[in-house]
## 1
Amino acid sequence: MADWTGLLSELVATRGTELNRYGFLLTGDRAEAADLVQEALVRVFARPHRSWELGRLEGYVRRTMLNRFLDQHRRRQRYALLVPKVAGPEADADHSGPVADRLRLLTALDALSPAQRACVVLRYYEDLSVAGVADRLGCREGTVKRHLSDGLARLGAALGTDRRAPEEGGGA
């Protein structure tokens, strides 16, 4: 059996930053992202496997993170029916440059449903094809296309642009 503690240490040392970024894109919150990474690592390493390879472990951890994110959202949705969330108006501070763009993007991502957000992150951050996203989420390609279309439309409306991403297999 492989030394799982060594594999865990190496995975965190070499891919920890990327796992945290992925978690942040899913959750939109640094603390939740760190919790998501830790929870996924605990779940994956709770059952050591003989043929673990470092290259495959990251995929297992990312898949576990995605599953946990979607599970947590479903749980929150149930509670949201009992306790309505009230968002106060945001102060329109005059930010400029990349920081403001990043904040606007994160705010727009927060407005997406978990399925839309997962599809957008997997398609454009993970750079998966529509078929790859469908496979990862365990749904049909048509469902992924619908979530991507709706998600991109909502992002475009929130960001004040109607630009669509290029179609898969399309030109530059």
## 2
Amino acid sequence: MSDVDLNQGLVLSALGITGALFGFATSQFVYYIQNYWRRDRLLLRIVVPLVWGLDLFHLVLYAYTIFQVIVFARSNTASGLVLPWTGNAQILVNACLVAAVQVFYLHRIWGLSRQLILVIVLGIVSAANLGLGITLMAQTLIIVSVAGLPTLSKFDVALSSVTAASDIFITITLVALLLMSRRKGSRNNRLINRLMFYPINTGFLTSLCAILSLIMITTKKGTNFYVFFYYIGTRLYTICMIASLNARESLRNDMADAAGIHSIPAIRTHPQHTTSRLAGLRKYSFFATQPSSRSGSESHSGDAPAVLGAQTAPGGKARGLGEGHSADDLRRVHAFSLLPKS
């Protein structure tokens, strides 16, 4: 098998896998639109469609590039094959997609820590990742032909290294901040343990793909093995981000069951729970959603405020699920969950 056949087989295999992953990301996106988008925070209402749109655009560019390369490769030698403009564009789109997802996680870190220096340092690493992606795209415009791609290996190595480093740093920071929110014997610890699963899962998968891409660049020169892992990692960014947002309802329900709170309608059917008392409960909730504009039985849908994380004390005052936690601890958990505030 020639190197040309091997490279074409690799990019076609990567296209099939990334296409399947995009289908899964689309199902997650549709679920998000149906259940969260209208009542979510403005940042998420912008970032989630943006990430999915970039993912779609990248897949289209990738598929068109492969089509152009395979079709014209039959009438051109590998050394004279011109790199399609879509091959340059997909590098830039990929860099923007990764940057958008990392901004999402930086926003979570800011909500958890309120440490400006920490966010700036991580932001610089993420900006370096974006800058390297733009630089690589600019270099591909200069070389013109496919034969010149091996000369860009040093840029590929730098990009994969910084991508892996930024993912690892962001993951470690999120997990460390969540661990700092734990307290001995607190019922919030169960929620925090589940919340830690998502950054660990995301960081592990995306970092693994970046590391494998880095290994392939250095050990399998002249092949497209690194592209195989690099673009799969891009799809995983989208899937993990949207899936973590879609899991918020499940997290809320699990904590409600543990606290003995089964549903919002059950709370509202008790006469002793007045409007002012519900407002007090909502104040202490770290999973509150935006109040619905509907009233009566219609407000018992998913748009109704979820009073998770609060119980009513004998004196009528509300106390948080994580009794013994400071207000900062509850704020950290609420900030990480990214559910709309009341």
## 3
Amino acid sequence: MRTSLWVLFLVMTAVSSYAQHYLSPSLYNRDMNYFNPASLPIDSTSDHYVSVLGKRKFVANDKEIWDKPVTLLANFISRTSSPKGLFSVAYLNDRYSYFSRNGIYGGYIREIPLGRAGLSLSARGVLNVDRIRWGDLTFPVSEEGTSVRFTPDLDFGAEFGVGGFSLGAAVHNILEGKVTIREADAIRNIRAFVFHSAYRFGLGRQVKVSPYILVRLKRNILLDAGLSASLFNRVSLSYTLRVNELRGIYAIEARIMKKLFIGVALDRSPLYPDHNGDLLLRYQF
């Protein structure tokens, strides 16, 4: 009995903590759609947008604990028959040791013109398919095989823009979906509030600069502040400071075809042993 309770405690602690920390892309300056479903990375001259993001976590001298494959996020956005409406579909694959999550996202975005300004509103449904592979645990348990649980949820977002200024807000996990094992919460999605703002302006004809800020409120406050510079409409360089972690994020994105972009980001913090690498491909047509 004591062994079963101890095993359950370990599983609940690891899986619950993991589920509460949703994906945190580092390459988001030009694509905020994961953080805010109302944010549009697609421009007015295109009807479709597709992006694929891969994120890899590296932890020095800790391979026995951190067995973390690449996290994958694929996103597709398309305009509907109405020029002011769009729908989005996304897929998230995130694995950690004996726990994995496959998330399916589907949303609708409505653009509302306000003279020279604009407002976009969005609602996005989420279906998380969570799996616990009991056989991958390093200690004996009575459970066998794989347990599959479904945790549906909802995200809402809004973004206002005028000129080079944008301001957005979103809320994730409205329903706070959870999975109960043995009458205890083993997996729980924590509701999160997101606020972001940016201002893009030109320095001459070939250089555009954009300071930006991203605030996320979960159980604590996570603050990103950064600056990006676009050169000759071909290369974008950015630096972001994740203030709470003193984590510096260095990113570069380049246009390799007319509307095909590739980006790379690396981060490091003196406070934490891990560092992350992001690779992003995005294309609109």
